[in-house]
């Protein structure tokens, strides 16, 4: 996917600066900016939060083992993807390449973005976020899907010349080494 997707949709009136100035929901909801429109999603449920926590710990441990003190794992931080395309998102997990003393981060500060799709995540939301990360040139993207009553599914992507290239797919409780700034062994059975 590329940023060209955004050109078929008219941009909304809100800018990244408007998004940053908005009061954040106090109920745990997430307020994101998608093509100039504010989008509020409900707070993540227990399975979503559990998978997010497990992945964050796996990432943190892998970074420590590899000696990469220049990278930090942060849950649910604001990322300014594109000012011209008016996109600001909150990935479930971000691995940043800069200091952590910020309220939000620029897309170029991300080495990895992780999105966990819950059953209520729409196809449009998924496609938009993947296109936004690709257009912002975020090097690595992980997608975790938590279908009701089924094992977690995991996709690992690396950025190529024209978008993301799928490097790994894990289902049925598999353990894999995910692409990222360091090798990370992900046991998908631990995400449930």
SS field, number of helical segments:
3
Instruction: Enumerate the strands of the largest sheet in spatial order, edge to edge or round the barrel.
Output: 3-6-8-9-10-11
What is the strand content? 25-35%
Structurally, the number of domains stands at 1
Q: Provide the low-confidence segments as ranges.
A: 1-7
CATH superfamily: tt1808, chain A
Oligomer kind: single chain
* Approximate helicity band: 10-25%
The ordered H/E elements are HEEHEEEEEEHEEEEE
Query: Remind me, CATH topology?
Result: tt1808, chain A
Which structural class matches the secondary elements? alpha+beta
**What global shape is seen?**
globular
Compute the average pLDDT. 91
CATH class: Alpha Beta
CATH architecture: Alpha-Beta Complex
Our measurement of the CA-to-CA distance between the termini, rounded to an integer number of angstroms, reads: 29 Å
How many strand elements? 13
Main attributes?
tt1808, chain A; 34% strand; three-stranded mixed β-sheet; disordered N terminus; 192 residues; single chain; 13 strands; alpha+beta; 3 helices; six-stranded mixed β-sheet
How would you characterize this protein structure?
Helix content is 21%, strand content 34%. It contains three helices and 13 strands. With 192 residues, the chain is an alpha+beta fold. It has one domain (3-191): tt1808, chain A (Alpha-Beta Complex).
Could you write a compact summary of the structure shown?
The chain is of the alpha+beta class and 192 residues long.
Give the secondary structure arrangement, pairings included.
Elements: H1 16-21, E1 30-34, E2 37-41, H2 46-66, E3 72-75, E4 78-82, E5 87-89, E6 93-96, E7 104-106, E8 110-117, H3 123-135, E9 140-145, E10 153-159, E11 164-170, E12 175-178, E13 184-187
Parallel strand pairs: 4-7, 8-9
Antiparallel strand pairs: 1-2, 3-6, 4-5, 6-8, 9-10, 10-11, 12-13
